[in-house]
Amino acid sequence: MESINVSEVFQAIYDSKINVTLTWFLNGGFYFIIGDTSNGIRAKGLLWDFGEGVEWMIAQVAKRSSEFLETAKAKGWIE
Questions:
Q1: CB-based contact 78:59 (threshold 8 Å)
Q2: What CA dihedral angle connects 1, 4, 55 and 60, to 10 degrees?
Q3: pLDDT of the chain along its 79 residues, tens only?
Q4: Which residues fall within 8 angstroms of residue 22, CB to CB, at 6 or more apart?
Q5: In what order do the strands lie in the sheet with 29-36?
Q6: Per the CB 3.0–4.6 Å rule, which of 3, 15, 22, 53 could disulfide with 30?
Q7: Chain centre to alpha carbon of residue 65
Q8: Is this structure's pTM higher than 0.85?
Q9: Residue 68 pLDDT
């Protein structure tokens, strides 16, 4: 997979009206949440590599948003 522009990923998720939270801790990994407490948590993941976390986030959001899925395919983020 080619290098992914994380800024474009986050903008595409935002444009698809999907809520995402990203938290990281020193030596504690990257904690991704898809959804929110008001509307429901759809997925959570703790990953130790940021690049893998972004790929996980892309896959999770693509399962939940056809608009994002189309964008992700067009950008080559997923097949």
A1: yes
A2: -120
A3: 568 999 999 999 999 999 999 999 888 899 999 999 999 999 999 999 999 999 999 999 999 999 999 999 999 999 8
A4: 30, 31, 32, 33, 53
A5: 20-25, 29-36, 40-47
A6: 53
A7: 11
A8: yes
A9: 96
pLDDT at 29: 94
Cα dihedral sign, 29-53-32-8: positive
> Rounded CA gap, 17 and 38, in Å?
14
CB 49 within 8 A of CB 24: no
Three-state SS string over 6-69 comes to: HHHHHHHHHHCCCCEEEEEECCCEEEEEEEECCCEEEEEEEECCHHHHHHHHHHHHHHHCHHHH
pLDDT on residue 15:
96
